[in-house]
Specification:
Elements lengths: L1 E7 L7 E4 L10 E6 L2 E14 L11 E4 L2 H27 L5 E7 L5 E7 L7 H11 L2 E6 L2 H8 L23 H6 L6 H4 L14 H9 L11
Parallel strand pairs: 7-8
Antiparallel strand pairs: 1-2, 1-4, 3-4, 3-5, 6-7
Helix pairs in contact: 1-2
């Protein structure tokens, strides 16, 4: 049997499963875990569940320990480095007149790599920018182009409903949303009314879509004569 806990690394991120071994972990505990990119600090969002060894994925990573004061100080130092990297990279983008928008900088727990997330309408030649970053921070550099929906998830904001956008709060995955979902629910196809902050179709269009399609299977079409 294995004790499996659900862990989040970001509030708006996915939930990942880790093997807790014999650690007594509770919800909201900060822990250090093994990941494909090395150690990382995450938050327990699902308490331990005992599952058969055969059931979890074979490549399930382990929880190393409950986060200590030194680990939290490392995280704080990394946040400061991210802010410094954000400012430096933004200046370099302006100086080199690159048509890209820097959205976020993420520093791995062991400082083995800095990941710069950006948006751009077209392909960008950022080779010289990478050289600047490597020379400044003396670590591995990754520039990652993201889409408009991922940008809204990171930046956050309020939707037309008056609440914080779903992608930054309750959604773990950004599932595909199509105009067909709005049509099935007889919604206005005015882009201003069905588009979110990202300019794409609102994620909430998919919330009741399955309910509408199931209900319409047993309903007569408009114009049919029926007995009730």
């Amino acid at each position: 049997m294995k004790n499996i806990v659900g862990v989040k690394f970001k509030r708006e991120g996915k939930i990942y499963s880790f093997h807790a071994d014999n650690l007594d972990l509770k919800r909201d505990d900060l822990i250090v875990v093994n990941t494909e990119n090395g150690p990382a600090v995450g938050t327990v969002v699902k308490e331990a569940q005992t599952l058969p060894i055969q059931q979890p994925a074979a490549n399930l990573k382990n929880v190393i320990r409950i986060a200590a004061d030194d680990d939290l100080r490392t995280c704080e130092n990394n946040r400061q480095l991210e802010q410094e990297a954000m400012q430096f990279c933004t200046r370099r983008i302006t100086e080199r007149q690159l048509h890209m928008k820097l959205i976020e900088v993420e520093c791995l727990f062991d400082k083995s790599k800095l990941v710069f997330s950006f948006t751009a309408e077209n392909r960008v030649d950022f080779r010289e920018l990478v050289k600047d970053l490597v020379q400044k921070f003396r670590t591995r550099i990754e520039l990652r182009q993201i889409g408009a929906r991922q940008e809204a998830r990171i930046i956050k904001g309020l939707g037309i409903c008056g609440r914080e956008v779903c992608c930054a709060t309750l959604l773990q995955n950004l599932d595909r949303v199509s105009v067909k979902m709005a049509k099935e629910q007889n919604m206005s196809l005015n882009p201003e009314k069905i588009s979110g902050l990202c300019g794409r179709l609102m994620c909430c269009l998919g919330y009741e879509y399955d309910g509408y399609t199931d209900m319409k299977k047993d309903m007569p079409k408009c114009g049919k004569t029926i007995n009730t």
